[in-house]
Biopolymer transport protein ExbD (Rosistilla carotiformis), 124 residues
Amino acid sequence: MTPMIDVVFLLIIFFLVSSHLARQESRIPLDLPVADGSVDQPPPSDLFTVNVLPGGTWQVSGTEVDRPMLDRLLQSHHAEHGPDAAVRIRTDRSVAYGQVEPLLRAASVAGLWNASFSVYQENR
């Protein structure tokens, strides 16, 4: 009975830590682009978030990544969750599309087609 209780406690700790990291990803302060409308959908469980900072650098889970590392992470995400896995891009509104396009291309090459952008919708 004791080993089973130990496993349950380890699972609880694992889920607490992983849920904290998932929430932390969307708390990186960015001035999101403004949109006229948006679609509110619950985030899928297989969501992979990439933040594009004002300088054009990419961050995944709070860590700056370069193109080869991003390629490996996207391929790993595809291998783990399949081609329908979601990629969310959070970018500062001052970032030019030319700095976001390689990210979209990398997701496409990795076999991930389900990409979305986080935006800020002004209240009218």
Observations:
- The chain has a mean pLDDT of 77.
